[in-house]
Amino acid sequence: MSPHLNPYRTERPFRGGFGRALRTAASAVAALTLLLGWFTATGSAAYAQESGTPKATAATSAAGKAVAVRGGNVIYSSIGTRCTVGFNARSGSTYYGLVSGRCAQGATNWYADAALTVFVGTTAGSSFPVNDYALIRYTTSTAVTFPGEVTLGAGGAQDITGAANPTVGRSLCHVSQVAGVRCGTITAVNVTINYPEGVVSGLFSSNICSEPGDVGGPAFSGTTALGIIVAGSGSCSSGGTTFYQPVVEWLSVYGLSLY
After folding, report:
1. DSSP single-letter state for residue 69
2. How far apart are CA 137 and CA 139, in angstroms?
3. Torsion angle defined by CA atoms of residues 69, 219, 156 and 215, in that order, rounded to the nearest 10 degrees
4. Residue 56 DSSP class
């Protein structure tokens, strides 16, 4: 079935005065399989939702304790979308979650659970196409905490304290909702992808495999954030390539820092 081409909207950042310099598109355009398995169907075949339960949902440590939403955890919108948080960031005392812009399209309110009982925040800005990022402004609540960590599964976590631009040959790992934590190296920067909705440029790629359902997963090198998964080709049974939205420009546009 051919994807239905829906109109798109690119929202302006919530902070004024942040102009965006257009990046030079890469010479090669990636032919790929889009990894959009966590999306609810919205008129496009590319948005078919995958069955099953996300591995990295937000966790409550004990009855009555606050729910912790980390990078790599899934959050749920009131329109049925579920997206993976890449990283948590802040501006002063206000906290935000970084998610895929394509995943967050059309959604306003977000929750830590599929039953939509634990409210975490609202969409504060997004850009797709051109970029593939969105921002969730977290609400202040004693019911939810937002650690500056990335979940590694089985109770493990990696602290994230800063961000860097990707460079070819640098080692990195990413969190896969389907295949767990996988590691490799960066293979290219300034990659361009043609989506049905338009072009996204300035991406980078790695030799790490990924699977449908992995969009939004954080990619990092030690304590340094590099990007989030936006697409890929191949699979973890046959090998493949994964593509990422870098985070440095994203943080600059919205005036945020990692912690």
Report:
1. -
2. 7
3. 60
4. S
Q: Could you say which residues of the chain have pLDDT below 50?
A: 1-53, 61-62
In terms of phi and psi (left: phi > 0; alpha: psi -120 to 50; beta: otherwise), the region of 132 is: beta
8's tokens: 């798109």
Q: Write out pLDDT tens, residues 111-141.
A: 999 999 999 999 999 999 999 999 999 999 9
Please check whether residue 175 is in contact with residue 213, taking contact to mean a CB–CB distance below 8 angstroms: no
User: What is the pLDDT at residue 153?
Assistant: 85
58 close to 69: Cβ distance less than 8 angstroms? yes
pLDDT of residue 17: 35
Cα→Cα distances 11→8, 113, 136, 149, 257, Å: 10, 26, 13, 28, 21
CB 98 within 8 A of CB 70: no
Cα dist from 62 to 59, 65, 66, 67, 138, whole Å: 9, 5, 8, 9, 22
Q: How many CA atoms lie within 13 A of 29 on its CB side?
A: 6
Helix spans in the chain (H): 101-104, 248-254
| Coil, helix or strand at residue 248 | helix
pTM of the model: 0.80
Interval 150-162: pLDDT, tens: 999 887 999 999 9
Whether the CA torsion 221, 161, 163, 140 is positive or negative: it is: positive
Cβ atoms 184, 174 nearer than 8 A: no
